[in-house]
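ok so dumb question maybe but i'm new to this and my supervisor (M.) told me to 'just get the structure for Energy-coupling factor transporter ATP-binding protein EcfA2' and walked off. so i did the thing. is this what she meant?? sequence i used:
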Amino acid sequence: MILKLEHVSHEYVSAVRSHTGIVDVSLDLSGHHFSALVGHTGSGKSTLMQHLNALLQPTSGTVWIDENAVTSAKNKQLYPVRQRVGLVFQNPEYQLFEETVAKDVMYGPMNYGATAEEALERAKEALMMVGLSEEFLERYPLEMSGGQMRRVAIAGILAMNPDVLVLDEPTVGLDPLGQTEMMELFKHLYDEYQKTIIIATHNMDVVADYAHRVVVLEGGELVYDGEPHQLFIDEQLAQSLHLEIPHIYKVVLNLQRKGRIAADFGAPFNAERLAEALKEK
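this is what came out, is it supposed to look like this??
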């Protein structure tokens, strides 16, 4: 599907003060991809994400969601647009409010006009997509583990069958195993269900391990859009953008400086390939 921003700016205005969220951002996120959106707090990530499903509308510029142009003018018929791009906020499990998993996951489809029978079938399918069986349908969400609750919240978005899944800090608050399981879930949705995945994260290890593309914002402006490897292999560039180098890149670059592995050791950087290179050396 088409998903792109053309010279989009957004300014938050209140009676007390105003501040700019993003400035003149042009970005094409169309097609099937697994991308990361990074930048420090206040860089504009959340503002940009909320434009991707028209939760926010531009102060100037245009957001294209397929043939729908979202502008500063009053936009009608935004519900169908929001079905195409599912937005999952940080700690989505805190937004669970129904007495059963079934009712929570069915809420979105029914709000968009599905019958109870249709919504239940979508709920079953969505739970399967996130690795939960139908046995969870009658469970009380708040009695589940944090990781399970997060999966239920994501299932509630998937039940509306979006083409794009946009997630704000999806691994925050999880232990290392939980983080890996969550990221493997998104990889599964990308590979098996052809969902476009866009994650906002501060975790550069996640970016290096999973993303095919990384978009960097700073002060509301787009400052980098390209392959993660090209960003992280250039320490000076990464540092100029105030980004932490992923651990695997630190190890590889250090070993290259010491002559322990070849200077032309190329992507992908992972523990298995690194171990093989050390054996060969």
